[in-house]
């Protein structure tokens, strides 16, 4: 087929292009195989309450160890999964596995929330709610322990459907968080259009505090965060900050009344066996991760 560049000029066929395309197709095929076989795994990143820094739960993050290439980042394979539709079955695999793990921890006496990322392509399937409920029932996990994270820009695709699904999920006690909040196109209008319960403020806003970005001063970054948390509180929404890497960021978020934090400072995503380090002992003392116990509040 003919490729066209700026000004509708026909681009010359280049071997480099076809190689990239062939590699992409190969990745797509391997990803499909990974979803159908046992090529995927999950890491769990802890989430902590503020100001207590107590563990409240985990976010499940998918990992792919490609036999040919080694570990591939979700940043490169999730977009491929989205475009090809593989994301739907990938998403259900993640959901089932995360629910299974949460149920296993629950039956060991450790009752925590499990957050699972859901793509809009999966969320818009007519039987989405049914399959989520099936995943819960399959392992005996109550809906109140499940949080579904939807990415903001994608939810707006079909607002009515999103509303119906969110209401149906809520009826099962399942909570909905808007992920990467602030990076989409209509953050503020979304707040009054969809009945979700939680906001996850995108990492880029948290990074502004550390002076890592040049676009905005520290003072301005703080004003933005103050505004977002004030609006969220006014609307009765629960606020989580993602990507917290420094004590300074954590302190500021705590001062602003942010409800929960997640980030490398307090805990990286790790396999289930390692994630158990943060879990409270059955009937024992409160959970304190290695990062949490280093803090002044702990
Ligand atoms: P996300 O849902 O916003 O997940 C948070 C990402 O930020 C994770 O990257 C996590 O490792 C990283 N992160 C957490 N704390 C920090 C920190 O303090 N500093 C920095 N620099 N990064 C931090 P990961 O695992 O590479 O996942 C990237 C994205 O891929 C996720 O962003 C999510 O949108 C998507 N994703 C991951 N797993 C799934 C899945 O099962 N289904 C779907 N649909 N998407 C997924
Ligand atoms: Mg997420
Ligand atoms: Mg996020
Ligand atoms: Mg993010």
UniProtKB/TrEMBL annotation:
Q: Where is the EAL domain?
A: 24-283
Name recorded for this polypeptide? Diguanylate cyclase/phosphodiesterase
**Species name:** Deinococcus proteolyticus (strain ATCC 35074 / DSM 20540 / JCM 6276 / NBRC 101906 / NCIMB 13154 / VKM Ac-1939 / CCM 2703 / MRP)
List the top taxonomic levels of the source: Bacteria, Thermotogati, Deinococcota, Deinococci, Deinococcales
What residues of the intact protein does this structure contain? 572 to 869 of 870
